[in-house]
Every structure is written in C-alpha cells, then in structure tokens.
Amino acid sequence: MGQQHIGHRIRETRKTRRMTVQQLATAVNVSVSSVEKWERGDRTPPPGMVVHLARALHVGPDHLHGQPYWNGAETADQVQAVIPDLRRVLLTYDNPDDLMVPARPLRVLATEMDQVARLRQDGQYVPMGTLLPGLLAELTHVALTARGEEQLRAYWWLARGYRATNSLAHKLGYHDLSLTAIERVRWAAGRSGDNLMMVTAAYLRAGAMIRVGSFGSARRVLTGLVDEVERLAPEGAMSDEQIAVQGAALLKLAILEARDGNADACTSRLREASAAAGMLGRDTEHYEMSFGPANVRIHEVAALIDTGDNEQALARLREWGEDMDRPEWTPPGHLAGERSSHHFIDVAAARLAVGDRAGAHRDLLAARKLAPNHARFHPTTRTTAAALVRQERHADDSLAGLARWAGV
Is the pLDDT of residue 2 over 80? Predict the structure, then answer.
C-alpha cells in the first residue's frame, strides 16, 4: 500500500523531472514541509493543489491520482468491461455500426435514458455502465434517421447519454474518453434545438478545463455562459431551469477561483449563486444540474477545502449546525447521492488534515453509504483511506475493511 499513495507518485515524478523538493514547493507556492508531508503520505494535498502540482510536474492530475484504477475492487466489479464498447460507440457517432435488431421507439429509449440519468446522479456507475453502450447505439440510429421534432428530441436524449458517458469515464479515470464524450455532448446538443442543452455542454467542457488547470479558458467559458443564460431569458424573467443552469455555472466559477487563488472572486461568485438559489427557494435537478441552497453550502465548504482552509470549512459546518440545533450541518436527504457523497469525501479529507482521524473515517463511511460506486472510485477516498491506515498502527476491522474496499 505504501507504494500506491499520491505522495509516492508526486515524489517519483519529481525525481523523474529532476526537481528538488524546494523547487517543487516554490513552483506551487507552498512550504517545503508541506511537500515533504505529502510525499510521505502524512497529509493529502487538497484537490486544487493536485492540479497545481500536476502542472508544475508536467503531467495530468490523473497521473498523480494513479488513474485509471485497475486493482482489487474494480476488477471484481468488471465495470471497465464497458469501456471498449463506449469507445467504439463514441468513435462511430455519425456513422454507427448496424444494429442486430431495429431500434426501439424513442419514447422507450427516453424512459431508459431517464433511468440512466438517475443512476448517474446517484453515483451508481456499475449498473449505469451496462446500459449505456446499447442505449447510445439505438439513440444514434434514431437521431440520424428521424425527421422533424422527433429528431430534435432524439439528439436531446443522446446528449444526455453522452453526458452520462462523460461522467462514467471521468470517475473511472479514463480522461481521454471523458473528453471525447464531452465533444459528443456538444455535437448532439447543437442538433437538439435546445439552447440550455448547449449551455450544459459548454459547462461540462469548462469543468474539464478546470480539472487540467486551464483556469483562464474555463473562466471565459463560464462567464460567457452566465451572460448567455441572462440573454436567453425574456425581458430578464428567468425560468427555474435557467436559474438552475446559471447558478451551476456560478458555483463552478467559485470553485475555479478558489483553485486559482482568487479568494475575493470566489466569495463574490458564491454570493451570486446564493442569491440565485434564494430565487428558487429549493434544491433542483434541472438539466441534471444539482443547484439550490444546500448545494451552495456544499460548494462554499468545498471552496475552503480546495484552498487548504480546512479549519474554517469545518467551523462553517458547525455554525450552520448550531442554527439547526445539531452538532454539524449535513446535506439534506433529498439531494442526489453523488452530490452528498462528494461532500462527505471532501470533509473527510479536511478532518484528516486537522488530525481528526475518527471523524475522517466516519465521513468516508457516510460517503460509501450514500453512493458506494462513487465513493469507491473517487481518488480522494483512496488517498484518505490509505493515510488513515498508515497513521493508525492498529487499524480496526472497520477501517481496514474500508481501505480494502476502496482498493488501497
């Protein structure tokens, strides 16, 4: 296990690049002791810092995370078995292979794609993955052969299928496939006749830019999307769908600014998003964008953790909890499983950073309960679980079992 943590890969890559610890620390603007702790595995770099480390080392963040994962748990799930079929379907998007039997009616395919979307939002990648290749193939044939309104709708559902493919590929660490899927979302959205679907496609592309550290490009895209949604609204009266899509773009901008070290800009975007969430008054899932008051809070905490301000992030959770006569605020039960699971994974890493190993363990278990597939394939789950096992000389069965389940 000691050879698998992210710190080991940082150290080995640094040595390959012939950089000293001092040089790497200077490149990412942190102390030498921070880099040394990360390389030993005593601490885990926050998500935003992983991007900066990867850029300084001239590799992708996936390289430092060790993705895609091929060991223990993933081999047992066989979820990677669908990857070759998805590559084939994405490659032949405009000239698909012949179907063995005729495609089912669009209404049937739409119902199944709705199921896939729900599985995606709940982080159930394994059952989702088995449905995707065949469903995408059928929708492609319908979209290419239909006419009129039915063709527009077929492309709209196809865009959602490509979005699910992007999510699956990204979570499993197949980032080249993820980028291809995003381009297919853009292709299908552009033929759907739905402006908000086209905004959604650009939003996904901006998210990929943030993951590789292209902050300036992502900022321009997302800022343009915020303005575009405003322009689409008749006389400034935005629909709930438009508010949700614009709000999601604002939250993405907030995370971007946090990772780019712009605290004031991050706060400003969170304030705008909070105002938009107040207009909705509830959490929504329009265009598969989780947006509303709870999701704004999740992003506020995530932004603090991304910048390494773990104590403030945990203090914020306690403050919100006091307003509800609870020890700490947690996401409401109606949120999508993937969204809530992601929150607990982030908070687990923050607790570990401040020395609360029991709390970190507890949050990883909560993330696992909410969305097992999502938690299992998330790189922060692995790094946090691995660090917990290393720091606990006599790890109990629960912690050891969690680490094994996560593939550590």
Answer: no
Task: Give the per-residue pLDDT at 362.
Answer: 96
Total number of residues shown for the chain: 408
Tell me how far apart the alpha carbons of residues 304 and 46 are, in angstroms, rounded to a whole number: 10
DSSP codes, 41-64: TSS---HHHHHHHHHHHTS-HHHH
Closest by Cα among 117, 110, 187, 181 to 142: 110
pLDDT for position 73: 47
What gap in Å lies between CA 328 and CA 324, rounded to an integer?
8
d(CA 117, CA 346): 23
| Cα separation, 47 vs 303, whole angstroms | 10
Q: What CA–CA distance (Å, rounded) separates 316 from 213?
A: 27
pTM: 0.86
Biggest CA–CA distance in the chain, Å, is 66
Look at residue 397 in the predicted model and tell me its pLDDT: 75
Give the model's pLDDT for residue 70.
55
Task: Look up the CATH number of domain 1-77.
Answer: 1.10.260.40
Q: Are 242 and 279 in contact (CB under 8 A)?
A: no
pLDDT at 58: 84
Which pairs count as long-range contacts for 175-179, CB under 8 Å and 24+ apart, including other chains? 175/60, 175/62, 175/67, 175/211, 177/83, 177/86, 177/87, 177/90, 178/208, 179/208
Residue with tokens 């005593």: 42
For the segment 174-202, the average pLDDT, to the nearest whole number, is: 96
| Residue 75 in this model has a pLDDT that exceeds 50 | no
Asked if the peptide bond before residue 68 counts as cis, ω within 30 degrees of 0, the response is yes
Q: Where are the domains of the chain?
A: 1-77, 336-408
d(C-alpha 369, C-alpha 376), whole Å: 11
- Mean pLDDT over 197-225 rounds to 96
**CA separation for the pair 408, 403 (Å, rounded):** 5
Long-range pairs for 31-38: beta carbons < 8 A, 24 or more residues apart? 35/10, 38/6, 38/7, 38/10
The CA distances from residue 226 to 101, 241, 248, 250, in Å, are: 43, 13, 9, 7
Q: 17 falls in which pLDDT band (50, 70, 90)?
A: confident
